[in-house]
Amino acid sequence: MASEHSESQETNSTSLVEDSLNISFEDINYTVRHGVLAGGRKTILHDLCGTFNAGELTVIMGQSGAGKSTLMDILAGYSKPTSGSIYVNGRVRNEKMFRRRSCYILQDDQVQNMLTIQESLHIAADLKLGNHISGQQKKQRIEEIITSLGLTRARRTRAGNLSGGQKKRLAIGLELISDPPVMFLDEPTSGLDSSISKQIVYLLHLLARQGRTVVVTMHQPSAGLLYMVDRIYAVAAGRCAYVGSVTQLLPYLERMNLMCPPYHNPVDFLIEICVENASGLVESSNNGRNNNWCTNISHETDSSIIEKSNLSNCEEVCLTTLPTPKEDPTSKILLALKSTYSTSFCKQFTTLTRRSLLSMWRDPAFTIMSTGIHCAMALFIGTLFYNIGSDAKYVRDNYNFLYFSLMFLMFTAFSSVSINFPEEIPVIRREHFNRWYTAGAYYTSTVVSALPKQTVCTLSYAFIVYWLTGQPGEINRFASFCLILLLVSYVALCKGLLIGSLFNVKNGVIFGPFFIMPFTIFSGFFLRYTDAPFFIRWLFNASFLKHGLVGVVLSIFGMNRPNLVCSDMYCHYSYPIQFLQDNGMVGEKFSLAIVALISIGLIVSVLAFVILKIRLKSKW
Ligand SMILES: Nc1ncnc2c1ncn2[C@@H]1O[C@H](COP(=O)(O)OP(=O)(O)OP(=O)(O)O)[C@@H](O)[C@H]1O
């Protein structure tokens, strides 16, 4: 096969003019580390070869653990093979170019639950088509997709309320916006009943018939689906057991004296006998090189397929209005762009922020609950420390109140993001891989759209407690107090994003406190900076809570605050300067606390972004 392929790199110009992309691969090996300490390696794919053509629906099938998803990941460009080559129309694949012409719909595909089908498609069109396609054309494209995928009646239904089949169709529709000629789908029918599975496979069959190369993995396609499948690629323990048409499968097996019982699904039979006859099958298929059994690919008419597969319920899926890639200029307009992404960073950022805010607006329960909790806690704390602010007798209590406020805001901001953010990762992974937006645009929009809620919650809390605890009625002190609380909650929010980027929800809940608790120890509240051993003092400077505590204490007791009234015989802290001195804060500066908080916030944000980027690149 190698000789058939030109070794020249696939050039941009050739990709631009080609509407159909045939994919072939040669000697694909994939090895992973097996046991970090043992240093062993495990080979998952062994010298796999094969060809998947445009205009055909190819199903990669095999037992669980055979290596289907691994092969699919490699073909889609999601992971790199350890060795081997992939060709597009006979030329070595240019990965960057290929990713612009293909899409990958993952198994755990998730959509934005709070948005309706129509809104999701509009956002996808804004991100994937940008300003290169006019508003009118975008609208027309969305209408075509909605009609073709049979989603007209559900167009105003939120994705979270859609059935499994409708959700899958929406996921496919979102990628069809930019009309990629190559589509990869990992287990598109998993979790769906047989009638919905038929609908999905019929849709994929029609998409293939329009000239696309459609490759899907399926554990074990049922007999009812096989009429719509053009090519089967059976994987057995990382090797190819059969490549060819459905109709040729039985003759292929019979030639090897493997007789499928009458009325038995040949695919089920192949899967059953795969293990014990693996070596013979792999030899016979020449590990995917033997294309003799592909000659009879039927290309049956739609009416005969509908009849044979009993597709009466599926008439709603009908691609009559969707133009074929040949007729549709969208893909070519997008390919002519120099950049990998169709839209600028700004456009991606504004569209993603709009989407986040819209989702938040649609699901106000979380925002209302958060604000409610902040207000309720503020009332409780305000009542507990009622009117202590101007009395020298309660300076210690006031200090405790200030520290508690920082801790409360830190934990609420941290946990709200560290729990919510990991749930978004599967959506971001798909959209980012399919070049909707850069990781930077997504990350920036996430931070920016989280700020309004955090600001409202923090200011509600600050306003209530400041007033109830009877702090000085000076606008600049109140403003400084609010500013510090806001900055502390923003830094905690960024730390939440960092943990959310690193861990899933479960591990985030377990490990999150380990990441945040050390900052409480080095805040200066439990152990004063001046009392700490010399070699750990730097940890105080790295603790945002220390700078937060300095900031709030200075805003209440610093800035030349006059002496406090004493309601007792003797008050040790009638002179605010005395309190600052005892807590080692005399030399501290409010402006430095602000600078330190902003710097720590920026460092944590950058770290969270880098981790998110790494996570999106890897499968972790
Ligand atoms: N990173 C890895 N480390 C160790 N083993 C791995 C790794 N990735 C995949 N495997 C193993 O490789 C084999 C093939 O995995 P793959 O997910 O491709 O199978 P599959 O055919 O798609 O299975 P399923 O139908 O259950 O999804 C499995 O045995 C899996 O455990």
Automatic annotation (TrEMBL):
It is a multi-pass membrane protein. It is found in: Membrane. Keywords: ATP-binding, Membrane, Nucleotide-binding, Transmembrane, Transmembrane helix, Transport. Residues 23-262 form the ABC transporter domain. It comes from the Eukaryota. Its main location: membrane. GO terms for cellular component: plasma membrane. InterPro entries: AAA+_ATPase, ABC2_TM, ABC_transporter-like_ATP-bd, ABC_transporter-like_CS, ABCG_transporters, P-loop_NTPase. Belongs to the ABC transporter superfamily. ABCG family. Eye pigment precursor importer (TC 3.A.1.204) subfamily. PANTHER family: ABC TRANSPORTER G FAMILY MEMBER 28, GH24286P. This is ABC transporter domain-containing protein. It comes from Chrysodeixis includens (Soybean looper).
